[in-house]
Write a structure and sequence with these properties.
- The protein is mainly alpha-helical.
- It is built from 6 helices and 2 strands; from the N terminus they run ββαααααα.
């Protein structure tokens, strides 16, 4: 059975069970707030034990720019989100959705965008 792109699988560290725990994007957003490009980049960086300088170089931005993105002080265009996703091996659809939704929120527009591949 193929896993939905909107699900995240976390392997249990418990020795009593070997089942995977599956969380949908909605489950994660209830726990951590709306998914953003900055949250994705920070999670990727920390999960891969990278410094901001290392990740900034990998995605082609300055360290200050990466810090601003991670901390929500700067938004990323949908085009840049797509390019970043390809460079780090993340879902392009999720990154572009996040970028678009962040732009809508910053304009105080109460809409959300959900994308699917053409």
């Amino acid at each position: 059975m193929e896993k939905s792109k909107s699900q995240v699988s976390l392997k249990s560290t418990s020795t009593t069970t070997k089942e995977d725990k599956k969380f949908t994007r909605e489950d994660l957003e209830k726990r951590r707030g709306p998914l953003t490009v900055g949250k994705i980049l920070r999670a990727y960086r920390l999960g891969n034990e990278l410094t901001q300088a290392q990740l900034a170089k990998k995605i082609g931005v300055s360290v200050q720019n990466l810090s601003d993105i991670e901390n929500g002080r700067q938004k990323v265009s949908p085009e840049k989100a797509y390019k970043i996703a390809k460079k780090i091996g993340h879902s392009e659809i999720v990154m572009v959705e996040c970028a678009l939704n962040e732009q809508l929120k910053s304009c105080r527009m109460e809409y959300t965008v959900t994308l699917k591949a053409a």
